[in-house]
Specification:
With about 200 residues, the protein is mostly helical. The chain contains 9 helices and no strands.
C-alpha cells in the first residue's frame, strides 16, 4: 500500500533501534504538541539522543515527521481472508489499532493538521486515497461473492464501520475497552446483521 516516505540524510549505517526510538519520540511529540510544537530539539530530547544524530538522518523536521508517520502508524490496508466478515473484522481491528493504540494522539492530530504541514500534506492525501480504495475493494469483493446485495451502499457501510471503531477507540476509557479483536468481531456482526435486516424488510 502507498504510504509516506522520505529519503534519509547522509550519515553512518542506520541503527534500527535508534530509528525506532526516534520514530516513537517524534510521534509522541507530534501527538502532544501538534505541528506548532514539533521541533528537532524536542524530539531528540524525548528520544534520549543528540540533535546531531537527527540531522545525520533527516535534514528537516518535515522529513523526520514523514518518516515517523510512515513507520510508526498502524496502516489501514486491504486484506483478503476469503470472507466479507473476516475482511471487515480485520479492517475494524486496524482502525481500532490506529486510534486506540500508542500512536492514537498522533493519528488524531494528523487528521486535523496534515493538510497544513508543508511536505506532509501530499503524502498524507496519497495515503488516505490508498486506504479509501482498499476499504471499498473489501466490500466490492463481498458483493461479487454474493455475500452482500448489489444494492448495498458501500459508502454508508464503511462510514458506519470506520466511525464506530474510531469513536469506540477515542471515547471509551482505556480500562473499559475490550480486546480490539473481540470488539472488531462484535462491531462487524452488529453491522452486518443490521445491513441484512434493512435489506430484507419489505
Amino acid at each position: 500500500m502507498t504510504g509516506m516516505s522520505a529519503a534519509p540524510g547522509p550519515g553512518r549505517p542506520r541503527d534500527p533501534d535508534v530509528d525506532r526510538r526516534i520514530a516513537r519520540a517524534a510521534l509522541d511529540v507530534f501527538g502532544d504538541t501538534g505541528w506548532a510544537g514539533f521541533a528537532m530539539e524536542v524530539v531528540a530530547r524525548r528520544a534520549g539522543i543528540g540533535k546531531a544524530t537527527l540531522y545525520l538522518r533527516w535534514t528537516s523536521k518535515e522529513a523526520l515527521l514523514t518518516h515517523a508517520l510512515n513507520t510508526g502508524l498502524v496502516r489501514v490496508a486491504d486484506v483478503d481472508t476469503g470472507t466479507l466478515r473476516g475482511d471487515l473484522v480485520e479492517l475494524a481491528a486496524q482502525i481500532l489499532g490506529l486510534y486506540g493504540g500508542p500512536s492514537s494522539r498522533a493519528a488524531l492530530r494528523l487528521t486535523l493538521e496534515a493538510g497544513t504541514i508543508p511536505g506532509v500534506a501530499e503524502n498524507y492525501h496519497a495515503m488516505r486515497e490508498a486506504q479509501f480504495h482498499a476499504a471499498r475493494a473489501i466490500v466490492r469483493r463481498g458483493i461479487d461473492r454474493g455475500e452482500l446485495p448489489a444494492s448495498v451502499s458501500i459508502t454508508m457501510l464503511l462510514d458506519t464501520l470506520a466511525g464506530g471503531a474510531m469513536m469506540h477507540a477515542l471515547s471509551t476509557p482505556r480500562e473499559k475497552q475490550e480486546d480490539p479483536a473481540a470488539h472488531a468481531q462484535r462491531l462487524v456482526d452488529f453491522l452486518l446483521q443490521g445491513t441484512f435486516t434493512r435489506v430484507d424488510q419489505p
